[in-house]
Amino acid sequence: MFEAMGLETVIVSTIIGACALSFGASAYLFLRARPAPEAKDLDQIVKNAPYHRLHNVLKVEAGS
């Protein structure tokens, strides 16, 4: 199949195809990337914090 084409043509076509494929994949991943989530309100973060997971990390004394 490739006998009629020169070796240089086959190599250059392969390189161009690989570059086009990598460019297309990069463009797809760039367009698919999600924007950064919006900053949340500090009061909402404190309200929904997972305090039940802190027992192994932080020793909390009962207040008087």
Q: Brief overview, please?
A:
This protein is mainly alpha-helical and 64 residues long. The chain is built from 2 helices and no strands.
Which keywords apply here?
64 residues, mainly alpha, 2 helices, rod-shaped, transmembrane helix, membrane, transmembrane
Structure description:
- Helices cover 50% and strands 0% of the residues.
- With 64 residues, the protein is mostly helical.
- The protein has one domain (7-56).
- The chain starts with 6 loop residues before the first helix and ends in a 17-residue tail after the last helix.
- The model has no long low-confidence stretch (mean pLDDT 80).
State which percent range the strand residues make up. Answer: under 5%
| Biggest beta-sheet profile | none
Percent helix: 40-55%
Radius of gyration: 28 Å
How many separate domains make up the residues? 1
Q: What is the overall pLDDT average?
A: 80
Structural class: mainly alpha
pLDDT < 50 runs, ≥5 residues: none
